Amino acid sequence: MTSVQPFRFAVQATKATSAKEWRDTARSVQDLGYSTLFLADHYLGPGAAQREARWPAQHLAPVAAIATAAAVTDTLRVGCRVFCVDYHVPGVLAKEAATLDLLSDGRLEFGIGAGWSASEYRAMGLLFAPGGRRVDKLSEVVALVKAQWSGEPLDLRGEHVTALDHAGLPLPVQRPHPPIMIGGSRRRVLSLAAREADVVSIANVPFDARNEAGRTPEEEAAHRYGLVREAARERIDALEIESSPFFARITDDPESAAARVARTLGVQSEGLRDHPNVLIGAEDEVVDRLQERRALYGANYITVQQNEAERFAPVVARLTGN
User: CB pairs under 8 A, 24+ apart, for 89-96?
Assistant: First the structure.
């Protein structure tokens, strides 16, 4: 029987239009009891490409914002959910990440993924390669960061990554390396994450009643967790499973809140509250649902969006560490 990891919670923040607002956000997330403040590795401002991507406009680039958040807090962990391998030179990203871990006194969580937003790639003039090639590159980048953070001489000669004749500096504070979080949704990337990561981030599941494989959203989430368990084998008890109820609301009127989400998504509200990426209800109900979902999908590391952080804090206080 697989043991479950204790709960911890994060906030994913994408909005700040001044230095003061961002500093206040970081301090607030820490004061509210969250473990981690994440940014996202997205770059589009308002416009047709951003609407096509169906992702909120990203105000801040992650590396500088992570450094600032770490500088104005003292216990809050910081990171990106998740860096896209195609948006960064791999060796530079590895050095930036090690520097962030050093300057935060060991509070970095390093999230990395193969990329998913074809419209964002196109808007930035990047080639959106087939999924297999993007995962090939992800695998090589994960090997690079582990090698570069070891301090040993580098001799990597891959199809996507080359690192020769030098050792990585600085060494991160966390040894052997900062926690690595790999995000994805399909067998190959989830299997890579199960073997190589410390945290497996399971991407949002579709809102269709049944997907192409005939699975409901709940069945799809369970299926993805099954892929992780299968690949992790004896590592499974040490892994954290991260997931986001992207649409979360603590409320005494859950039906009205669910109806608003349904209108936003263009789907039926019936059954929406059971979706793995929806968490709507009164505090007690949300606590119960999170415990049920941890048992079903393994999700112990829960990331909520910035606009719900304060309302969700009582749930964080009740479940953190349990």
Answer: 90/140, 90/141, 90/144, 90/145, 90/160, 90/161, 90/163, 91/144, 91/148, 91/161, 91/163, 93/141, 93/145, 94/144, 94/145, 94/148, 94/149, 94/168, 95/148, 95/168, 95/169, 95/170, 96/63
